[in-house]
Amino acid sequence: MLHIKSLDEGLEVFKALGSDIRVDIIKLLLKNKGMSMNELAASLNITNGALTSHIKKLEDCGIVSIVNEPAVHGNQKTCMVWLDKILIDLDTTDTHKNIYETEIRIGHYTNFQIHPICGLATAYRFVGEVDDPRYFTHPDRVDADILWFNKGYIEYVIPNFVPAYQKIDQLSICAEIGTKAPETSSSVPAVIDFMLNDTPIGSWRSPGDFADNTSGIFTPDWWYRNWKQYGMLKNITINNNGTFLDGLKISSVSLKDFMLDYKSTIKFRFSIDSEAEHTGGITIFGRNFGNYNQNINIRIHYSPM
Questions:
Q1: In what residue span(s) does the HTH arsR-type domain sit (predicted)?
Q2: How many angstroms separate the CA atoms of 147 and 175, rounded?
Q3: Which fold would CATH assign to domain 2-86?
Q4: Is the per-residue pLDDT at 75 higher than 80?
């Protein structure tokens, strides 16, 4: 997901999408889950030179990415759409002076209860052995940049350092997530539940496992190619109007139900219900894995009590 926080910030994206042929390129790439430059040019009936110019505009905005794939005669350039959503904030009256931002590393969880398939890894190696939940207590887990499990939950305490005597008006959690690793089929779905201070606030049905022939942009080379490479960037926001996922309301649970302020402990949980119809598990990607090179990003809006 690309989050454009102002019209000025999104100007280059709007220019890139302001072309019928570039919109056709995106449609073709989505339909075919990626195409080579030659295939695209033939489908659009344009020269490779003309196509290169259009692809560059889309690539510069982060909408399209080009990867080198092995072919019969050397390598070929394959184009793919990397974004699943573009979220645009039209109301820019919000100021930034009353916002506290921080991040949480993937391995800095404070509580967990998980079941195999499971595991975690740093940017350089696995932490202990896969499918053994005991290693989620290993000292090296604080350096983990990716973790996964089939059932259960992982919980993080969100740092709350908003100034004294302030109440919290909005809380946003942004993370790259997908279904479980390692060798599951890309067709396996999962319902991932979100909880705030032990209260369910909503869920997301992940469409699949994202373990295909496409490497995650930041996933290290030592990671098995047929294991999960990337997920989707999801933004969970809770305010006084309810809970939203990528801007769409998913529940009526609001901050009014929690009364959070500068002294509050804030616990956020990713959970997989073992009794749910779809239990494809969850993978959480941090910096050095996936397509977004970020940890779990936190954004807290506050105002005087």
A1: 12-95
A2: 13
A3: Arc Repressor Mutant, subunit A (1.10.10)
A4: no
